[in-house]
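Researcher: Here's a chain I'd like modeled. Treat it as a single chain, no partners, no ligands.
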Amino acid sequence: MGQSLMRYISTRGGMDPVTFRDAVIIGQAPDGGLLLPEVLPDLSSDLEGWRELAFEDLAFEVLRVFADDIDDAVLRKILKDAFETFASEDTIPLVQVNGLNVLELFHGPTLAFKDVALQVLGGLFEHIWGGQSASLNILGATSGDTGSAAIASVRGRPNIDIFVLFPDGRTSLMQELQMTTVLDDNVHCLGIEGTFDDCQGLMKNIFSDLAFKEEYRLGAVNSVNWARVVTQVVYYIYAALRFNEPVSFSVPTGNFGNVFAGYLARSMGAPIDRLVLATNENDILARFFETGVYARGVVQHTLSPSMDIQVASNFERFLYLYFNRDSERLVEFLKTFSEQGSAKVDYVDSVDPLFLATSVGEKETVETIKSTYAAYDYVLDPHSAVGVAAASRFELTSPVISLATAHPAKFPDAVNEAIGKDVATHPKLERLISQATRKRVLAADEKLVKNYLAENAR
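Model: Modeled as a single isolated chain. Structure tokens:
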């Protein structure tokens, strides 16, 4: 292989460019920033030739552009192994019911959209770290779905241990069971007494302690990891190419990772008209795109817990591009936000006309689950319902694809109550209820978490 062309830099400007392999292992940059390619490629001239490709083949074409230091045959094998774990032949079927277009991203091992990227990331970790005598210790924080998907991607793999922080008692029961019933020796579930923002803060602080990060060889699985974002870009391109005109997407989001992948897809030439950014009552992102002000609120507990987030970790990547890659301006903005709980950008008519942002309340979420079932005989989980409800608020001329981010059986109480009968079931989840579980509950204290890592890391 010749000289690798794609190099990755930190949004905060304090890191020398690295290759894709290094970017995967580093996760978060040493200066606290997130990684992005030095230059975003223009894929528009390739799209027509990709129109007929199956999802796995399209993933190969897109990822090889970014992972140009991984051999083609190896990359194909990683993707094949990743998507073989999906229960649907199409991997991510596009379901069309009377003008409602739903992209089902939940057919992977843990029934959530996170599986699409995390199954790939698990294979990348094993390949890049393969043959090392030392163990890689993966640290993640989850508001519900990332944890189980990350665990499913590395459970039982040699030389990799995973530590997942989740807000104890604040995920759905099914989400917790999907983590705590995995009893492999290399899996460690830590219930943190606090919110997801507390978990994410602990993780970021631990990664910022570079000596500790190095000593325990910590890797990241959260959407801070570039490999996750770039894999998510693929399904936007894939779904857009199913239509003969530009499309819009409605994306339920809390951490800005999923919708940011759509933003990147469009930046690289995908025929995307608009992105509907759908939040629940935790509306920090919706408020930003409406007013230019990024202001922290109090975390509200909702029926869509994976989006109960007030500080979106992936938002930094968008701001960096929005500020024309001006790291100093970005760092200044983040500093103001961190000190004052609020920061703003110059706002004209909208921050970015690509985004249509809105916040969907609990009542409307329930109503949407109910009415979608009545009209289409289709069951939405509460997160996907937020996306469908948000899309209905805008007069869009392009076809709209709503992303279905989780199987309804992950949130049976909310779904069954909305519909009035037991429709939210899945045999995989039914089996979890009687299984043995293992977790450790800790206070939201950095020292306690570090001590646990130090004692249990290999």
